Amino acid sequence: MTVNINLLQKQKPLVNPTFIVILLVILLLLLASIFVGAYKIKRSIQSSEEELAYIQVEIIEQTEMSNEREQSQSLEELMNATTWLEQERVNITGFLSELTALLPTRGYILSLQLSNKNEVEMLVQFDTQREAAYLLHSIKQADWSIDASLATINEQQAAEMERSRFEASYSFTFDPSYFSIVEEEKR
Length: 187
Known about the structure:
With 187 residues, the chain is an alpha+beta fold.
């Protein structure tokens, strides 16, 4: 008879099978939560991109509407100006020739702005302050002048010039009927 004597102890498995099952369940739950989180983040990114696209479309639409409003306003201003010009029909060349006739020999118009209410803003350059005062007096005495005032007068020094020059700013209102094209045709 053979006797089987085993002096070595029976080895226990290094890893308990229940431990492996629990570890697998935890791992599956962890992977599932990662997939769910990634899906939610992906949906959030997609909804943000959709919202961004919607906002960009809204911005484009608002810009187009604003441009259309600005164009309609500028068109309306242009129509008002043409209507005014058709109603008033002022002979600008006649006005300018009358105005320049009042200037002294070395008086120069630097800028001239004419509004639709027959108001004129003008900047003129002179040699002396006396010439600036004389032009104001001449404008006030003109038949076509309603109201005139000297807004400012400034002395201008230039390096190439030995004498200083003066810039005077005037504002005045004129009678449009004096320069009316219809009235000139009747004369």
